[in-house]
Amino acid sequence: MTVAEPQDTQSKLRKTIPGSVGRKQIVYPALFFVGVIVAWTGVVRLLQLPTYLLPTPYEIVVSFQGQLGPMWPHIRITFFEAFFGWVVGNLIGITLGLLMSESRVLRTALYPYLIGFRSVPVIVLAPLLILWLGLNITPILATATITVFFPMLVNAIAGFNSTDHLSEELMRSLDASRWQVFRKVKLYNAAPYIFSAMKIGVALSLIGAIVGEWLVADEGIGFLIVIANNQVNTLLMFRGIIVISLMGSIWFAILAIAERYVIYWQDHGHQGGL
Fold first, then answer.
1. Which parts of the chain span the membrane according to its record (predicted)?
2. Which residue in 127, 136, 185, 218 is a FRET match for 80, CA 20 to 30 A apart?
3. CB pairs under 8 A, 24+ apart, for 232-240?
């Protein structure tokens, strides 16, 4: 046993070397991506599928030539709609989450209605938003905001409620102000929850913007996908899907990097999920 323990310790240390973990995070997704591309191309060639049904990855990449310029205004408007909804939805969620965490009466009174409201799919609310807000960009901004708001609200409440009450009492015993208690204790504990909701909100804000564009817009990536569907233009549909995917991935990566610097005390290397 005395000989095995150091070996076990060394084995555990090797498994937690950051460089090794970093290489695996790059190599494994790359291998999976190559495998998907090869399998996709093989299926299309083997079954001789027409381009309008399922193009090959090569055909999709080639179709981008000369098309990014015309697509750029649509990319810009979709990003604006999603980013607006992400910012506003997060701000409202954090603010209301803080208020509900501080007031048990407010939390008890509002939470059941918020749960019921969240159970309604945003695509069901979209026609009402169009009726109330008009045939313009406003209902699209509203759908993006609504999709982001609830996950942030739930995480903010959980984060602010995770505060150690002994730490609060210690700060107050040192004559700390309410702002100092909030910043150094409550916000400190809630930050990981808030960042998790912010990262989840990236995909949700894009979904909200695309859903709104499907129903009311005359520009944007969602609008292009609707046009492509009507024209059976599969290459255009795939271009729209790839652009949205890249937009969300880059946005998510920026947030993940920011999280490492802002929440420097958190062990990011062993976090699961998002």
1. 26-47, 77-99, 111-134, 140-162, 193-216, 236-258
2. 127
3. 232/52, 233/52, 234/51, 234/52, 234/53, 234/54, 234/55, 235/51, 235/55, 235/59, 235/60, 235/63, 236/63, 238/55, 238/60, 238/63, 239/60, 239/63, 239/64, 239/67, 239/71
Q: How many CB atoms lie within 10 A of CB 194?
A: 23
**Token pair 């000369």 in the structure block, residue:** 66
CA dist 15 → 4, 65, 72, 137 (Å): 17, 44, 44, 50
188-192-195-199 Cα dihedral, nearest 10 degrees: 180
Q: How far is CA 16 from CA 120, 207, 256, in A?
A: 43, 36, 20
CATH for 66-268 is 1.10.3720.10
Model pLDDT for residues 158-211, shown as the tens digit of each residue: 998 887 777 766 676 666 767 777 777 788 889 999 999 999 999 999 999 999
Question: Can you spell out the DSSP letters for 59-126?
Answer: HHHHHTTTTHHHHHHHHHHHHHHHHHHHHHHHHHHHHHHHHHHH-HHHHHHHHHHHHHHHTS-HHHHH
- How far is residue 4's CA from residue 9's CA, in Å, rounded to a whole number? 9
Q: Please answer whether residues 155 and 94 qualify as being in contact, where contact means their C-beta atoms are separated by less than 8 angstroms.
A: no
Cα 60 from Cα 253, distance rounded (Å):
24
pLDDT tens, position by position, 201-214? 999 999 999 999 99
**Spatial distance between the Cα atoms of 200 and 203, rounded to a whole number of angstroms:** 6
Handedness of CA 203, 67, 81, 128 (dihedral sign): negative
**Structural domain spans, the chain:** 26-63, 66-268
